[in-house]
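Re: your question from the hallway

Yes, I did run it. Sequences:
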Amino acid sequence: MAPLDPSDHTIAELGPALKDIEDVTALEAILNAEQDGENRKGAVTLIESRIEKFSADESDETGPIDPGDCSVAELGNALQDLDTESELNAVLDAERAGEERDSAIRLIENRIDSVAGSDADEHETTTEQSPAEKHPELDHPTADKRHVRALDDGTYRDMWVYCETQAGQLIDVSKEMLGKARELMDAYNDEHNADEQVVAVVIGDSVADLAEATIGYGADVALYYEDDRLERFRHKPYTELFAEMARTDAAFRAYDEPRYTLFPATNNGRDLSAQVQAELDSGLASDCSGLYIEETIISNPVKTGQPGENKTFKRVLHMKRPDFSGFEYSTILCLDNPARAFHPQGASVIPGSFEAPALDTERTGTVIEHETELDEDWLRVDVIEHERLDSGVDLTSNEVVVALGRGIGDNPTRGMELGIELADAFADADVGVSRGIVTGSYDFEGHVEEYTQEERQIGETGQVVAPELYIAAGISGAIQHKVGMDESETIVAINTDPDARIRDFSDYFIEGDLFEVLPQLISALNAGELDLKARADGGDTDGDSNE
Ligand SMILES: Cc1cc2nc3c(=O)[nH]c(=O)nc-3n(C[C@H](O)[C@H](O)[C@H](O)COP(=O)(O)OP(=O)(O)OC[C@H]3O[C@@H](n4cnc5c(N)ncnc54)[C@H](O)[C@@H]3O)c2cc1C
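Structure:
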C-alpha cells in the first residue's frame, strides 16, 4: 500500500509531503494511486521526477550510466554524479561505440577534464583566508558573497522568472514576463527537442496562492517562500533566498543553476536582479524590452580562446535594450569564456514590454514551497517605519491616452486644459506628458499642474503604454518617448512640423497647431460628429483628421 494517499493533498501540498520519501517502490505505489485516482498532470510529474531522481541514485550504485539510454541533456545531469576518470572513460567509450554524438562526447570530455583538475587540486594545500586577511587594504571587505567560480562545466536548465507582488497581487510585469518566458521556452523546447521549464519564483508573506496563479500565466513550476517578515521587499533576505533556490537541488530539478533568469525592471526588481546575478557570479542586462533565443557565431578571442577562430554559441538569450539614452538599441549577450561559464543569462524587463497572457485556470503545474530557515543576519537591516505614498497614476489601462509635449509652449496652461478636455470627451481616457513637460520650466496654473508631474510621463524613464488610441499633441517623437508608446494600436500625432520624427511611427499625422486642432476635435467629439476611436479602429465615421 502507498505510504500516503496523494488524493489527500493538493498539488502544492504534495511536494512537501513527498520530501522525505526516497524509496522508489513506495513512490511508485503513490504514482499508481494518483493515476488510478485524480490523475493530475502536475502531481504525476512531481512523483515521476522523484522516482527518476532516486532510481538514478540506485542505478549509480550498480555502475556508470549507459549514454545510449540518455538524451544529451539527461547525460549532462547524470555525469555530475560520476567522479572518477575510469567511470567517465567507460561512458566515453560507450558513447563512441554507440551514437557518437559530438555534443555528448564534448560533455563527457569536459567532465573528465574537470574531475582530473579537481584531483590535481586535492594535492594542493590551500589555506582559507578571511576577506579581511585577503584584502587588508580595504576597510570593509565583504564576506557575504559566496563565489561560485568553481562551478565549471556546470549543468543549466530552465528559465526562472522572479514574480514580484504588491498588496497581495502579482504585478502586471510578472505576468508579462511569464507569458514571454512561456513563448521562449516553447520555441526552445521545439528547436532543441528538450523539455526545459518555466519556473516562477515568488517570495513574500502569504504568497502560496500567488505562486499557484503563476501556473495559470504560463509557469510549469512555481517555487515560493513565505514568511511574515517578508511582507515588504527586503534586499538581503530576498537576494539570499533567490540565490539559494537557484543553487539548491529540489524534486523538480537536478541541475546546477538556471539557464536563464528574468526579473522585472521595477525599483525592487532592479535592486534584486543586480544582486542575485552578482551572487551567482554572472552578469545582467538591465531594462530590456526585447528577448529572443538564438545561436550566435563569435570571433572574439576572449570568448573563443583562439584568435582568428569562430565559435558558435548555442541557446544564447539575446537581450535588447534601449541604450545611449535611447538613441539606439543594443543587444546584450552573456557568453561563456573558454574556461568559465557565465550562468544564468539574466535580464531585467521593462514593464509593458510584452503582452500579459490571459489567466488559464485549467493549466496545471507543480507548486513547491522552498524550505529553509531565514538567517537572522539577513534581517539585520530593520525597516522601522514606512509610509504609503498617494497612489500614483496608472496610464496603462486606459483605452485612450492624450499626451502633450513642448508644443504647448506658447500657452502652457491652455495647452494642458485642451488635453484634459479632449481626454474628458472619451469614455476611458487620461492625460500623459512627454519628459519635455516634466523637466521644462513652464509656469502652469494650479488646476493643471497635477497633470504635468513625472507620474504621468510616458517613455523610457516613465510609463510604457499601449492603448487602443494614443494622441500625441506637440510631441516630436524622440526615441525615449517612442519606446513608451509605439506599441499603441493607433497613433494620432498633431504637430506643426511636417518633418517631425513622430510622423514616421504615427498612423495619422495632423499637420497643424494644437491650439487650433484640439478644440476642433473636442467639439466634434462632444457633438457626436466624430468617433475618433472608431475611425482609428478602421471605421468609416467622418472626421477631421488628415493623413
Ligand atoms: C536618459 C533620458 C531619458 C529620457 N526619457 C524620456 C521619457 O521617458 N519620455 C520622454 O518623453 N522623453 C524622455 N527623454 C527626453 C527626450 O529625449 C526628449 O527630449 C523629449 O521627449 C522631448 O519632448 P517633446 O517632444 O515634448 O519636446 P520637443 O522635442 O521640443 O518637441 C516639441 C514638438 O512640438 C511641435 N510643436 C511646437 N509648437 C506646436 C504647436 N503649437 N502645435 C503642434 N505642435 C507643435 C514641434 O514641432 C516639436 O516637434 C529622455 C532623455 C534622456 C536623455
